Amino acid sequence: MANTSARILYKPFGLAGSVGAGLIAGVLFKQVWKHVSDADDTPEANDRRFGWGQVLLAATVQGAIFAAVKAAVDRGGAVAFERWTGEWPGEE
């Protein structure tokens, strides 16, 4: 199987992994935020109850968690795909 074929076959797995990573990252962020702050709610940019610092800190933490979880899921999916098919689904 050519590398292009592997990438095409991997697309549905990668998409499902991205959705799952987003869900996992959201749950993880809420748990982290509860431990970091006194608030049960996570700051939204248009919520007056939170100041600039809280909103920007929350966005930074949320982005870092999302990026790390997505990278872990994407890499794990690529490794599993290679084990199953013998082909690496991305750039070599």
UniProtKB/TrEMBL annotation:
Q: Name one Pfam family in it.
A: DUF4235
Q: Specify the domain of life of the species encoding this protein.
A: Bacteria
- List keywords of the entry alphabetically: Membrane, Transmembrane, Transmembrane helix
InterPro entries named among the record's database cross-references: DUF4235
Query: Which residue ranges run through the membrane?
Result: 12-32, 52-73
Q: What is this protein called?
A: DUF4235 domain-containing protein
Q: Which organism is it from?
A: Kineosporia mesophila
